[in-house]
Amino acid sequence: MASERSHPTIASGDHKGYMEYALEQARLSPPAPTKFCVGAVLVDADKNEILSTGYSMELLGNTHAEQCCFIKVAQKHKLPEERIGEVLPKNTVLYTTMEPMST
């Protein structure tokens, strides 16, 4: 499992700040001619707490940034990925630098 780095302090409701952090994550993505470098930040908006971050190809396989966020939350709670809804706060926000793909 990739380890979570320390996160910057971003003011509650600072959508621009969270998007800038997602862009920082995207810059960590290994470039590839046929893929976009995407970053994502998963936030508990009620507590203003970053739950997870991700970027394209961060984890093994053809992983998308958003998927990396979810995989890391699942691993943290020792759950299969499809059950993370059980542990995500009600007011969870996903900031992503590109609209998630449906494939």
CATH class placement? Alpha Beta
Radius of gyration: 13 Å
Number of helices: 2
The SS-based structural class is: alpha+beta
CATH superfamily: Cytidine Deaminase, domain 2
CATH architecture: 3-Layer(aba) Sandwich
What does this molecule look like?
This protein is of the alpha+beta class and 103 residues long. The chain is 23% helix and 17% strand. The protein has a single domain (15-96), classed as Cytidine Deaminase, domain 2 (3-Layer(aba) Sandwich). It has helices at residues 15-26, 65-76; strands at residues 39-44, 49-55, 92-96. Strands 2-1-3 form a 3-stranded antiparallel β-sheet, sandwiched between helices. The two termini are 23 Å apart. The mean pLDDT is 90.
Question: How are the SSEs placed, and which strands pair?
Answer:
Elements: H1 15-26, E1 39-44, E2 49-55, H2 65-76, E3 92-96
